[in-house]
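Hello,

I think I submitted the L-homoserine job twice by accident. Can you confirm which output corresponds to this input? Input:
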Amino acid sequence: MLNQNKPAAEASPKGGGLEGAVSVLSPATVANVVCGFDILGFALNNPNDELTIQLSDEPGVHIINQDGFDLPTIAEKNVSGAALLAMLDETPDVKGFTLYSKKHIMPGSGIGSSAASAAGSVVAANYLLGNRFSKEDLVRFAMFGEKVASGVKHADNIAPCIYGGVTLIRSIHPLDIVSIDAPPLHVTVVHPQIEVRTSDARQILKQQVLLKDAIKQWGNIAGLVTGLLKGDYDLIGRSLEDVIIEPVRSILIPGFDEVKRNCKEAGALGGGISGSGPSIFMLSKDANTANAVEAVMKEVYERIGIDYHTHVTTINMEGVKRTTINTILED
Ligand code: HSE
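Support: Only one job matched these inputs. Its output is below.
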């Protein structure tokens, strides 16, 4: 669907222009990648949020939402606001920002909606400031947004959103982010229209893990990373197994087992819960299989009677991307 987005200036309370403004497209992301809870993620080419930012003479962060999601506009309670406030703490020469946010990634969908807001905002602000901060600094700021969204700082959506491609968060304290090469992969995502809050999906997790499960998980993470680096699709497929998080969280997602089983039968390499859900993602070697997988996902949710959205896309190698203020997005 082609979507002609309105210029951000239309929503400006002062009706003013957007001189000196910077706009970005900030991509959806898939965190965890099945076996890598909190440590693996990749960016998607579609959907993207649109963010436009300007310097302001008023202190703090002024947020103008241009979508129907009714997200908080108080900076401390808004993921973009919290990330930008963290940046302002380290920019004494800057008074404030005005942010125009037009989200296409539905909050609570499991494809990194909060990360797209937080990461996109700080990347856009960094352009305004002459790129004075490193990507690692931007991840650090954006994690303040994730804390607002889920109660915990995690970077497995933020890092791929900013770096593009597939990323490994080897450590958060101190930050150690590693980009991982991957062969061409097609991604199919289904978002059943139920909301799973990341904070809830984290609270239900067990705090202890059996050694035998940990051993399986380590094997799968190592196998997945090796499969990506070697371009070994069979190894990628075999390693897309999660014996720790998925058994607990999948009960929150109607149709999960059926979608997974049927998609694999349709040729998907494998997949699982995207982030904390409820979206489910599948990886395929080629576009035809990714489309067949989408048909399978649709069939399951049509039959169960739950509304859904799907995305068939590929891995975004660039991350947050600077754009012109008027953009045409393919949804
Ligand atoms: N790693 C996080 C979680 C991602 O699974 O809770 C949330 O999108």
